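Hey L., structure's done. Input below.
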Amino acid sequence: MTTHTTRMLIIGSGPAGLSAAIYGARAGLQPIVVQGLQPGGQLTITTDVENYPGFRDVIQGPWLMQEMQAQAEHVGTRMLWDTITEVDLSGPPFRAVGDSGDVYEGETLVIATGAQAKWLGVPGEQELSGKGVSACATCDGFFYRGKKVVVIGGGNTAVEEALYLTNHSQDVTLIHRRDSLRAEKILQDRLLAHPNIKVLWNKAVDHFVAGENGMLSGVALKDTVTDETSVEPTDGAFVAIGHAPSTDLFKGKLEVDAGGYLVVQPGTPKTAIPGVFACGDVMDHTYRQAVTAAGTGCMAALDAERFVAEREFLARG
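Output:
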């Protein structure tokens, strides 16, 4: 067992965690990033990225994360492969224990554990991921310009994604397993009034259908009332049944909202515990973009640097 100590401990290695590391390293905090189960975060399972500033051509998600990691290491970040299994937030120093048995102690703690899109878990879903099946209309909708798309879900996420997709497609279908939507009324009204959106009620996805070219060609549906089966042809299917923030480690230790996201002071990455910061998708249920995650990672590092500087000033008396 080894104990690793740092002035800034970062849990999570997506755009938020790595941006925090870059800024923290440049401020001399010698950050340690514990990479977790999905090093690089959600972008490592995203192929084409077209909306990250600074690149005129389409870039690959895994490549972008490799470059961010290399930049963080270049300025002095230590990247460690481990999965945190427990945390003690009674510090500083704040303490985390890894699956390996190693202990990590940080004068500040940056939580960047992210979120995962919820999936249906039906046949064809994972096989056709990136080949017509997606969980992010904002990321991938552009690739379906002028094509037929479907959105699966009935809450705010699904309705927002369907409305967003009308920017690219004149043929958007919302598929919902019930006969009414859970989304806010104003969103429902916009959706139901939109001429380019139709709704299929009481339909559950049985499986995703691949065409001869190996790409998605349709969605096989089962009527939840009559059990009748049908296939809805489509070029793109967006699963929009919500996200699950990775906050299990912090339950009972930090406040979470109704969706399970960590609560921070408005407009900051500050949690209720001084010196503990949350950034990226673990605290952001509104935007959930790589560039916003990176921005909040920067904010967390700047606040962590101020926290450390104030403690050192007070300690000098």
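Residues 273 and 285 are 21 Å apart (CA to CA). The longest strand covers residues 3-11.

-- N.
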